[in-house]
Amino acid sequence: MMKLALISTFLFFLLFSTSHAHLAPRTLLHSFSKISTNSNRSLTTKELWFNQTLDHYSPFDHHKFQQRYYEFLDYFRVPDGPIFLKICGESSCDGIANDYIGVLAKKFGAAVVSLEHRYYGKSLPFKSTTTENLRYLSSKQALFDLAVFRQYYQESLNLKLNRTGVENPWFVFGVSYSGALSAWFRLKFPHLTCGSLASSAVVLAVYNYSEFDQQIGESAGAECKAALQETTQLVEERLASNKKAVKTLFGAAGLEIDGDFLYFLADAAAIAFQYGNPDKLCPPTCASKEGWRRSGGGICKIC
Ligand SMILES: *[C@@H]1O[C@H](CO)[C@@H](O)[C@H](O)[C@H]1NC(C)=O
Ligand SMILES: *[C@@H]1O[C@H](CO)[C@@H](O)[C@H](O)[C@H]1NC(C)=O
Ligand SMILES: *[C@@H]1O[C@H](CO)[C@@H](O)[C@H](O)[C@H]1NC(C)=O
Ligand SMILES: *[C@@H]1O[C@H](CO)[C@@H](O)[C@H](O)[C@H]1NC(C)=O
């Protein structure tokens, strides 16, 4: 007896949604990088590096790691134009996108610089991500990274312009998690910025944020919520009886940790609501559940 019709419909949604959202963490918005096809997607992708302090809180530990950054100077009004620091968040930072910040930079004669977040992309302090090695991954360390980088970049610009002690007006920008960093940076280092743009900034950290999932249930409505809960329940049952089979069904045979698997499953549904696509999730999920019930619960296409 197979009850996997419901799961299989859900699988299609999972594939659909992840290919569009790149498994975005549920509470974080992904960058608005849809640029029209006939203009360049990036202002620059040329990597630059500087030596960052690993632990900003230790007076004894002077370890460094290589942190990646980018600069775009085409619009810069030499020598006293503003500097826009675009903060990168919890993903690889592969360049400076050609978005509205480019428009603002052009208008205001700004230089645009962007720093990759520690532990993401190529800015890796360690080769492996053991728990021990992850101890310097925090938003607090990241804020100091930004402060140190800001000082470093201002000094190297001054050097290039044959001057000392000059400060350009700095502005920080960020979206979602990096939006929170942008707001926090302005609060923590008011002397290092003239302003901050914090878009969809998630400034309130909530431990074990189950209210988020409760809201998903509310947004889903009774029927879809029940179908989603049943999906979770069916998958949990199968994880207990035949782990490999149910993971294989989702193309996730290689995913060893059950918690990760369940997280992706739940997140695939949650992001449908967060990004405004309940219509792509609920009707097929509910229809599948209904179809399975009416067929007497016996037939399943996939198995
Ligand atoms: C797009 O990028 C290429 C290569 O960097 C450059 O030659 C070209 O001028 C750019 N086009 C526009 C519209 O900025
Ligand atoms: C970073 O440190 C390395 C090794 O100490 C050094 O070779 C390199 O020049 C430094 N880079 C910068 C930008 O200071
Ligand atoms: C800075 O000074 C050096 C040496 O005096 C000179 O060669 C260079 O052109 C100057 N650069 C600028 C941007 O003024
Ligand atoms: C998280 O919150 C839920 C609901 O309030 C509770 O049942 C659960 O025990 C909490 N878990 C942790 C790890 O705090």
UniProtKB/TrEMBL annotation:
<dbReference type="GO" id="GO:0070008">
    <property type="term" value="F:serine-type exopeptidase activity"/>
</dbReference>
<protein>
    <recommendedName>
        <fullName>Serine carboxypeptidase S28 family protein</fullName>
    </recommendedName>
</protein>
<comment type="similarity">
    <text>Belongs to the peptidase S28 family.</text>
</comment>
<dbReference type="GO" id="GO:0006508">
    <property type="term" value="P:proteolysis"/>
</dbReference>
<dbReference type="InterPro" id="IPR008758">
    <property type="entry name" value="Peptidase_S28"/>
</dbReference>
<keyword id="KW-0325">Glycoprotein</keyword>
<feature type="signal peptide">
    <location>
        <begin position="1"/>
        <end position="21"/>
    </location>
</feature>
<dbReference type="InterPro" id="IPR029058">
    <property type="entry name" value="AB_hydrolase_fold"/>
</dbReference>
<dbReference type="Pfam" id="PF05577">
    <property type="entry name" value="Peptidase_S28"/>
</dbReference>
<dbReference type="GO" id="GO:0005773">
    <property type="term" value="C:vacuole"/>
</dbReference>
<dbReference type="GO" id="GO:0008239">
    <property type="term" value="F:dipeptidyl-peptidase activity"/>
</dbReference>
<keyword id="KW-0378">Hydrolase</keyword>
<keyword id="KW-0732">Signal</keyword>
<keyword id="KW-0645">Protease</keyword>
